[in-house]
Amino acid sequence: MTATSQPDAAFLPADSLPADPLALERQVCFALSIASRSVLTLYRPLLEPMGLTHPQYLVMLALWGQSPLSAKQIGEQLRLDAATLSPLLKRLESAGYLTRGRSQLDERRLDVGLTERGRQLRASAEQIPAAIVQRLGIEITELQSLHAGLSRVIAAVDVATSDRRSGDSD
């Protein structure tokens, strides 16, 4: 896309696009924001019995995938800065789901690992993806396509922000 070209509004039929490029319904950021908040409301009643918020659930997902991880690795996976991640980890540690401690190999690194209680919580959490799919009422293939599209958006943002950072150092 050139600097003068208009972004595509693929989520609306071309003949229904308003002429105004700043029309709310044309904005990708608006659609992403509403979709994100709406989907997260479906997670809340599923996570509450486990004592988790959605950000805490994401931390647990990272650790169920691999444990232990450094706090830095978790932050990179979840795209969270230390100031946001640290309170999440503290609350999960207080709940008895994880441990935090200095690495024996590098004292500058904070290692985060699951407790037995945190590992056991996975069995309850395994029900969440199917429950979300059911509540959404959208075919799994459509959700997989959406995930692939969002992954492309994330990758494009990574490239754009990387290009901007490298351009700043010129």
Span between termini: 23 Å
Q: Could you report the average pLDDT, rounded to the nearest whole number?
A: 89
State the share of residues found in helices, binned by percent.
55-70%
**H/E order of the elements?**
HHEHHEEHHH
CATH superfamily grouping of the largest domain: Winged helix-like DNA-binding domain superfamily/Winged helix DNA-binding domain
Within the largest sheet, what's the order of strands?
1-3-2
Number of strands: 3
User: DSSP strand (E) fraction?
Assistant: 5-15%
Poorly predicted runs are 1-9
Oligomer: single chain
How many individual domains?
2
Task: Report the CATH topology name of the largest domain.
Answer: Arc Repressor Mutant, subunit A
Rg, Å, rounded: 20 Å
Overall spatial form: globular
Descriptive account of the structure:
With 170 residues, the chain is mostly helical. It has 2 domains: 8-50, no CATH class; 51-128, Orthogonal Bundle (Arc Repressor Mutant, subunit A). It has helices spanning 28-47, 54-65, 71-78, 82-94, 116-125, 128-136, 140-168; strands at residues 69-70, 98-102, 110-114. The protein has a 3-stranded antiparallel sheet with strand order 1-3-2. Strand 2 (98-102) and strand 3 (110-114) form a beta hairpin. The longest helix has 29 residues, at 140-168. Mean pLDDT is 89; it is low at 1-9.
